[in-house]
Write a structure and sequence with these properties.
Layout lengths: L1 H31 L5 H45 L4 H4 L1
């Protein structure tokens, strides 16, 4: 789960960085009235957004698996604390 969270934070940082660059480029393009070179930045932002969304989904899946593992562990612990099964409980 930590790897998924690390990838998520990295993807969020990269997305934030590209969006800052895109904002700066948009301001400059507006001042110069030249919007042609922005296409590559929009493509890169779209790619980074897809990576970020995948990382979000991976974190959610890892957290779901972690919750299921904790529930299974709690169940097993409960069985252990209940003691050995009697023959009556087996039938």
């Amino acid at each position: 789960m930590e790897k998924a969270r690390l990838r998520y934070r990295l993807a969020a940082h990269v997305l934030r960085t590209i969006r800052e660059r895109l904002d700066q480029a948009l301001e400059q393009a507006y001042r110069q009235q030249s919007f042609g070179p922005l296409g590559n930045l929009f493509d890169e932002e779209e790619t980074r957004l897809a990576v970020y969304e995948k990382a979000c989904a991976n974190v959610a899946e890892a957290e779901k698996r972690w919750c299921m593992l904790r529930a299974a562990l709690a169940y097993e612990k409960g069985l252990m604390l209940a003691g050995p099964l009697s023959l009556k409980r087996l039938n």
